[in-house]
Design brief:
The relative contact order is 0.13. The longest helix is centred in the C-terminal third of the chain and has 24 residues. The strands form two sheets. The chain has a seven-stranded mixed sheet with strand order 1-2-3-4-5-6-7. Strands 8-9-10-11-12 form a five-stranded mixed sheet, with no helix packed on it. A hairpin with a 4-residue loop joins strand 3 and strand 4. It folds into two domains: about 260 residues, Metallo-beta-lactamase, Chain A (4-Layer Sandwich), CATH 3.60.15; about 70 residues, no CATH class. It is an alpha/beta fold and about 350 residues long.
């Protein structure tokens, strides 16, 4: 919920955070980095905190003796083209497989550019992911256009989301964000949506030539069809938005089921994990920490509902005060107070989603 007591800038950032498939974005822009995880395996971390909301998830490149598999194709076309150019520096082998870990468009809008560059490519997704991609993917440009229109109304009226007057600094901020978004929106609206061409239900194994990639559905989490790419020999797992760093992508999804999915993920024999956003993880501590936070939130909600009655007869406002996730705050964001509002948006969204799940029981 956007409160009238929030600053206009915070309200605006939460508007972007509440857009489909987006996340809170308060930190400064990071640099695009490529990390070698093993011979022929690379993780590309894209700048993840653009103030305009138009950012891409991580991309992983897995090169075998015969062919290449890429995990997630980014969002902005210019970002995807940079990735394809980088892949061609690493290898002259063709990209014949592209896995979309889930349907959020910051991980798959670049599919058509891979299809243009590598016409024989197969785009893979879990069956539920393809269904959602087909539903939401073609509307990406329209959603961004409507966001631009909302920002333009704020600039023209000088008023924020709750009709409060914008300060000169806030108005300049919104105007700059709109200025930054418009050329990027032009990129997006010229991009053709490309859905998955091959689906799987639970497991799919691909031999790239001396390198096996196991594609797995370990359960619902961030979405109903989260896929994991697992390299058993190299002990690497590419996990999409099942895990995020420093703050997970968890303002929707299936948090009660996510707990078991994270347990399943932690049971993989892996010591390197590529999250959907943020730097590569080199142990399971972040997975286990997120699991414990979800479990704590669920346990506290259930305890409140036992006391007050089923969620269907309660409101979110009546129960959310009973859930205290502050003991986890420092473990997620440390002393980086620039992430404080991200943390609040994440925990508020998580509690709301848990309550909505409970209301359906």
């Amino acid at each position: 919920m956007i409160s009238k007591f929030m600053s206009p800038r915070t309200q605006f950032l939460l508007i972007l955070a509440c857009l489909p498939f987006a996340t809170p974005i308060l930190a400064e822009d990071a640099k695009r980095t490529a990390t070698k995880l093993a011979d022929g395996v690379y993780a590309i971390e894209h700048p993840g905190h653009r103030h305009d909301g138009l950012f891409s998830g991580n991309t992983t490149v897995i090169i075998g003796a015969r062919q290449v598999l890429v995990v997630d194709s980014a969002f902005l076309p210019s970002v995807t083209r940079e990735d394809i150019a980088q892949i061609r520096q690493w290898t002259d082998k063709p990209v014949t497989f592209l896995l979309n870990t889930h349907f959020h468009n910051d991980h798959n809008l670049g599919n058509s550019l891979y299809m243009e560059a590598f016409p024989a490519i197969t785009v893979i997704a879990q069956a539920e992911t393809k269904k959602n991609m087909d539903m939401f993917g073609p509307g990406s440009a329209g959603r961004e256009d409507r966001t631009n229109a909302r920002l333009q109304r704020m600039v023209d009226s000088g008023k924020g989301p709750n009709a409060q007057e914008l300060s000169s600094d806030d108005k300049a901020f919104v105007k700059q964000v709109l200025t930054d978004r418009l050329p990027l929106y032009d990129e997006i609206k010229r991009t053709r949506f490309q859905s998955a061409t091959l689906t799987f239900d639970h497991d799919l194994s691909i031999d790239l030539g001396g390198r096996e990639v196991q594609i797995k559905f370990l359960g619902k989490g961030n979405t109903g069809g989260d896929a994991v790419a697992y390299l058993p020999k190299e002990k690497i797992a590419v996990v999409g938005d099942l895990v995020g760093s420093p703050i997970p992508m968890a303002n929707d999804g299936y948090p009660a089921e996510w707990i078991q999915t994270l347990q399943n993920l932690a049971q993989l024999d892996a010591d390197t994990f590529v999250p959907g956003h943020g730097p590569v993880l080199h142990d399971k501590s972040r997975i286990l920490l997120f699991h414990d936070l979800l479990q704590s939130a669920l346990d506290q909600l259930n305890a409140k509902l036992v006391e007050s009655g089923p969620a269907m007869s309660r409101t979110l406002e009546e129960v959310k005060g009973a859930i205290d996730l502050s003991p986890f705050r420092k473990r997620f964001i440390g002393d980086n107070e620039s992430l404080a509002e991200d943390w609040e948006a994440f925990t508020d969204g998580l509690i709301k989603t848990l309550f909505e799940e409970a209301s359906l029981r």
